[in-house]
Design goal:
The protein is α/β, with parallel strands linked by helices. It folds into 3 domains: 14-165 and 339-416, FAD/NAD(P)-binding domain (3-Layer(bba) Sandwich), CATH 3.50.50; 170-230 and 287-335, 3-Layer(bba) Sandwich (FAD/NAD(P)-binding domain), CATH 3.50.50.60; 236-284, no CATH class. The protein contains 13 helices and 17 strands. The protein has helices at 14-17, 37-48, 61-66, 91-98, 108-118, 204-215, 243-248, 259-263, 266-269, 274-284, 351-354, 385-388, 398-416; strands at residues 28-33, 53-56, 126-127, 131-137, 140-145, 150-158, 180-182, 196-200, 219-223, 301-303, 308-314, 317-322, 327-330, 332-335, 359-360, 363-364, 377-379. Helix 2 (37-48) packs parallel to helix 13 (398-416). The longest helix is centred in the C-terminal third of the chain and has 19 residues, at 398-416. The protein is globular and about 70 Å long.
Length: 417
């Protein structure tokens, strides 16, 4: 198929909406949906390889608008680089450009600005509009943009992150939206000053939110089903053994001793039997907080080994009943309950398309090149973690995902000539 860039408004006929008609030529070879770290990295690698690509979305939008003010990245600095082919657009390169002193842990605002600086290498290949719908248009895809414009492409790479996957347990269904929020949907911390806030969960997001709320003047209680709080890197001595530590842990620092080394090789992980791969994945990312949090949470009330059995409104407050019968009144309940990948929750993927994607509990089953069972449809980032391991949950996975994707696309390109 020859490829050239053209974008035109088309009549939205019923036949078009069903994806039954297809153009003779595509506007681009690859469309990447999402402009977070994975989308930006994939776009940079594809462009450098001479593959016509368009990346759709506002750069770093989720990080800039849905993560709390004052947040610090859990990942090591070396694992916070967004991958580019020449390894020239590193975090250190941005800090030098912006004349910022390197820091560890890395502030969220620095990371957001780094991503926005990284975007400039895409130039005209970045389109900040959102994709409203993706349909098959044999032999490729038809993308309907938010303003009604239509774009055709040969391949679609979904790099849309985890915002759509927020896990909200049903027990909180009776609470007013004004009194309930998820860690992944709010940036404002100071608005809770003076309020009683119940934070549910014991992972990094829950614990960091609790620390930030406490420091902003809120009265905070952490409620978790775990018997105790866990901390990343609590066995410090294992990280201070020079060459031995480098054997035990990868530079990405995802997972405990041994597992950290294994998950650093996603291609190898893809060949591990699914049942064992799932065990490794869940062990590597079990709920835990970064090592700089215990001191900040020293005076915060923590209730462990308890779950919320019922949540309801009592006047203008949330009333939580725990499984031991005790109750808590809160002005607000903040859910640090993580996310559950389910690609059917991407609102731009219609049921007609997702029903043809082979899945495992919401995760797409992916082959080499992150290719799904729908020819030409790829998934990178968190949706790829069940096929390639937990590194794909983190920014550190952008290098493997981009290189694997480009290798696949270039190979198929060569075969079609």
């Amino acid at each position: 198929m020859s490829v050239h860039f053209r974008t035109e408004l088309r009549d939205s006929t019923e036949q078009d909406r069903a994806g039954e008609s297809a153009p003779l030529e595509a506007d681009c070879e690859v469309a990447v949906i999402g402009a977070g770290p994975y989308g930006l990295s994939a776009g940079a690698h594809l462009k450098a390889h001479g593959i016509s690509v368009r990346v759709f979305g506002e750069p770093m939008e989720f990080w800039a608008k849905k993560m709390p003010e004052g947040m610090l990245l859990r990942s090591p600095r070396v694992a916070s680089n967004i991958s580019d082919p020449a390894r020239a657009f590193t975090l250190e390169a941005y800090e030098a450009f912006a004349r910022i002193e390197p820091s560890m842990p890395l502030p969220l605002d620095t990371f957001v600005e780094y991503g926005r600086w990284f975007r400039h290498q895409l130039e005209s290949h970045l389109d900040v509009r959102k994709v409203a719908r993706v349909d098959r248009a044999q032999p490729g895809f038809r993308l309907l943009l938010e303003d009604g414009e239509v774009v055709y492409c040969e391949r679609v790479v979904v790099a849309a992150g985890v915002e759509s996957f927020r896990r909200i347990p049903a027990v909180f269904g009776e609470l007013s939206p004004l009194h309930l929020s998820h860690c992944y949907e709010s940036r404002e911390v100071r608005k809770f000053a003076g309020a009683r806030v119940a934070v549910i969960g014991a992972g990094q997001s829950a614990l960091e939110w609790a620390a930030l709320l406490h420091e902003a003047g809120a009265e905070v209680e952490i409620i978790t089903k775990n018997p105790h709080l866990r901390w990343i890197g609590q066995h410090k001595w294992l990280h201070q053994m020079g060459p031995i530590s480098r054997i035990l842990y990868s530079q990405h620092d995802v997972g405990p001793v041994g597992i950290s080394r294994l998950v650093a090789y996603p291609k190898l992980m893809s060949h591990v039997p699914l049942r064992l791969r799932d065990k490794i994945r869940t062990r590597a990312v079990r709920p835990a907080g970064a090592r700089w949090l215990p001191e900040r949470l020293a005076t915060v009330k923590v209730t462990t080994g308890r779950i919320v059995a019922r949540a309801r409104m009592a006047g203008d407050e949330a009333l939580l009943t725990l499984d031991d019968g005790s109750t808590r009144h809160a002005n607000h309940v903040l859910l640090g309950t993580g996310y559950q990948v389910d690609i059917t929750r991407y609102n731009f993927l219609p049921p007609e398309l997702t029903r043809n994607v082979r899945q495992q509990n919401g995760y797409p089953r992916l082959a080499g090149g992150f290719l799904s069972s729908v020819q030409g449809l790829h998934f990178i980032g968190a949706p790829a973690a069940r096929s390639f391991g937990p590194l794909l949950y983190f920014v550190a996975g952008t290098e493997f995902s981009s290189r694997e994707l480009v290798s696949h696309v270039a190979r198929r390109r060569q075969q079609s000539r």
